[in-house]
Amino acid sequence: MNLQRFIRKKELVDLTTRLVQLPTENPPGNEKVAAQFLKPLLSLMGFRVKTLLSPKGRWNLIAERRWGKGGRTLIFNGHLDVVPAGDPSQWKYPPFRGKLHKGRIYGRGASDMKSGIASFIHALSMIDRSKTHLHQGAVILHLVSDEESHGHQGMGFLTRKGGIRGDAALVGEPSDLHPVIAHKGALWLRISTLGKSAHSARPHWGVNAIEKMTKLIHQINLIPMKKEHPLLGKPTLSIGTIRGGTKINIVPDCCEIELDRRMLPAEKKEEVLKEIKERLDSVKLQDPLFQYRMEEIDFAEPSEVDPEEEIAKIGVEAIQKVMGKKPPLRAFSGFTDSRFYINHCRIPTLILGPGDTNQIHTRDESVEVEALVQAAHIYAQIVINYLSRKR
Length: 391
What we know:
By secondary structure, this protein is α/β, with parallel strands linked by helices. It has helices spanning 9-20, 32-44, 110-130, 155-161, 209-221, 269-286, 310-323, 338-344, 369-388, and strands at residues 48-53, 59-67, 73-79, 99-101, 104-106, 137-144, 168-171, 180-183, 185-194, 236-244, 254-263, 291-300, 303-304, 330-332, 349-351, 366-368. The chain is elongated, with a radius of gyration of 24 Å.
């Protein structure tokens, strides 16, 4: 069946625009307005919708729609929060206007990832209009909060709560409509060097923590990144912040850096921490005045699914049918909520969405209308193909 004729472009554009117009910036994380907008819409489409508030009061929606008895369950995940827009005067159009101009919708979250949510919802409307008879199976939507801050109040909360069941999942993050099967993890650390303050006219009376930090940074940058992934390449390490000293004429007694270590699926957090600690301990052996402390700020696991997983194959088939060309499998250097399904729920997951990865978190973020249309068509094809096959 040709599903394309069941696309209603204006309806799809309107839904995407409405979602972009809702200011769900994180922080503070006002996902409530988006959840309240989507809940009645999904109810009208035949979904049974539940609202789950995290311990910090963040809104998460779980919506389920079933056809017949038994069959398979496909989960779709989308996050309702967006990163802060920053200074609106720096944008070509106001970040929460949802401006449509020359075939693109502009606004914060247009690409990451309200377009993916709108396209999937529209895909289900397409299936209804086509009168495709799905004999059995279910679609569950997880429309969650807090993904932009590691997902602790969103998918992390739902995972800890338990009860997530499904045979496969789709995460609608922006992927340029390419199938993504892996992403790096992120280990964030805070490392401090400790010294002794003194008057800068008598620096030998003190211990300069900034000078000690230069030794620490040098050793960290010598850590070899030996492992390599066929899609993700090598792991990375980046020092993102540094703070030290209180006044020019005081020997600083403390210096602090924050470090971002991106991890491959084959790497373990304990191994990475051990590797960093060994480097720092080697400095301490050479310098008896060297003291440091290290603490974990946050951690997001890497994740990966086998390219032979059925959901990956069905995704590739659907993209090829709609786009006319078989797409290559890809990976993300950033992390997504797919890690909760893959690592904790043991649910094979494909990342696939209409947004442009070059638009993520940028000023003048936008999404192409044609990408929305293609995504809706691809999603509809995936739902039909996946639920029509037996376990």
